[in-house]
Amino acid sequence: MASSKKPPASKTLQNQLISFLVDVFKHKDLTNLKLVVAFSGGLDSCVLLHLLVECQKTLPFRLLAHHVNHGLSANANAWENFCQDVCKKLNIPLTISKVTININSSLGIEATAREARYKALQSSNTDFICLAHHQDDQAETLLLQLARGAGVKGLAGMGMLGNKLLRPLLDIPRSTLETYAKQHKLVWIEDESNSDTKFDRNFMRHEILPRLEKQYTAIKKTISRTAQHMAEADSLLDDLAALDVKNCQLNQQDDEQLLLAPLAQLSNERVKNVLRWWLAQHGADIPSVAQLQQITQQLLHASADASVKIKVSASLILRRFQGSAYLVKNVQEGDKDFDRNALSLMWQGEQVIILPDQSRLLFSQKLGEGIAMRHVETALLSIRYRRGGETIKPEENRPTRRLNALLQASRMSPWQRERLPLLFLGEDLVLVPNVAIDANFKAMSDEMGLVVQYL
Q1: What is the number of structural domains in the chain?
Q2: Which pTM does this prediction carry?
Q3: Cα(218)–Cα(324) distance, rounded to whole angstroms?
């Protein structure tokens, strides 16, 4: 007869973690899987590290740890030494990163430290970074997002899986982790700042949640469930945005361009959903309500000749040109400091040339296409930017045209024209990539030609 005795709580927690890992990595070779624990030395990360060491007895993944020393506490170096000692006893390789925090940052100390910590962790050479966030953390996060007036994405809280991050304890109450730590006689450090309620998260943890629990005993669990509902809603909104964006693009390869006519046919709510999703897909900052309103106004309602130029991240500018919105890298901006003489290269048979703005020229040879090789073999092929006054003869029986007029007719945006690389044989402009080739230098149908693509 099978025993009806329940397994100890620590064994149950370990089994839950093994089931989670097996489910997440069911299509991966675990012997080549590398997991790094974000190891602060606090109770939560000590429990996670200990659990994963135990799980290694069943699953053959590689386990490492990474400690980030923020230097904000007088005890920071002692905590670093503690983490080294723990990992040495467990025979777990440990990486230590020291980061400098700007305590006067407009983001605040909490957000600045978190940003620096994640940046350091993401630099790890690993498949996934394991974080010890638990159910209480999720409840605190959702309450903080409510206080900030966040939308569905913010109210979705933290996910168990995503962006190289694993949070296998997210459904587990902190009380369960405390029980596990006591059962296994674990030792951990206490960060004195965790009791300082001037920090938003500590205020929620020590002042708000305990009061809510007196009235609603299961509040942490129900808040966590709400976060899951929000995550599902957010996923559906992302799916809708992807469908709407697909209808607003000429092709999927040109995903940095958005056609405004079909966008304007959508409801205001779907327009905002599209813009949030599209910007996020390209690494732009999530716009505030006011910023999103400004973006929508300038893209869809500003006069046709208005110059739209909105900074949406440190490296991206949102522009509008001839019925489309574009995300443009700062290095492609035609600013007053742009040096037209900054590009001067000679083609020496390479298949690929990477230009200063990281765009590329691809070279290949094809019969009857491109610049006739007989010309290329008798003169130097050079690459440079526009300097003004260039002309080219695109068609044999038509007059020579000024490059400026040709580019305007091509519907190429001003910022693209500015840094368009041009190919010359001697002083003759022979090729404007993706636009025109001079008829006098074009390969005949029976001769080899040099084909150049600009990406």
Answers
A1: 3
A2: 0.73
A3: 50
Do 76 and 70 touch, CB atoms closer than 8 A? yes
Whether the CB-CB separation of 437 and 370 falls below 8 Å is answered with yes
Please give the Cα distance from 48 to 52 (Å, whole number): 6
| SS3 (DSSP) at 345 | strand
In the block, tokens 């490492």 appear at 64
Q: Which one-letter amino acid corresponds to residue 176?
A: T
pLDDT 10s digits, 372-407: 999 998 888 999 988 888 999 988 888 889 988 888
**CB-based contacts of 187: which residues, under 8 Å, 6+ apart?**
46, 86
Mean pLDDT, to the nearest integer, of 269-296?
91
Backbone angles phi, psi at 76, to 5 degrees: -55, -45
CATH of the domain at 215: 3.40.50.620
Instruction: Give the gyration radius of the chain's Cα atoms.
Output: 29
Range list of β-strands (E), 28-169 = 34-38, 62-69, 94-98, 128-130, 161-162, 165-166
Strands (E), 177-228: none
Q: How many residues does the chain have?
A: 455
Domain containing 36 equals: 28-228
Q: The domain that contains 296 carries what CATH number? A: 1.20.59.20
Element (H, E) at 309: strand 309-311
Whether residues 327 and 392 fall in one domain = no
The C-alpha angle with vertex 328 and arms to 411 and 409, in degrees rounded to 5, equals 10
Tell which residue, 69, 70, 228, 61, has the closest CA to residue 128.
61
Q: Please check whether residues 80 and 186 belong to one and the same domain.
A: yes
Residue 154 and residue 319: Cα distance in Å, rounded? 27
Which two three-digit tokens encode residue 108? 């605040």
Residue 304 lies in a domain: yes
Average pLDDT, the chain: 88
Identify the domain boundary among 270, 302, 332. Answer: 332
Residue 354's SS3 state is: strand
- Count of CB atoms situated within 10 Å of the CB of 197: 13
| Residue 23 covered by a domain | no
Residues 213 and 278 in one domain: no
pLDDT category of residue 336 using cuts at 50, 70 and 90: very low
d(CA 443, CA 145): 63
Whether residues 404 and 448 fall in one domain: yes
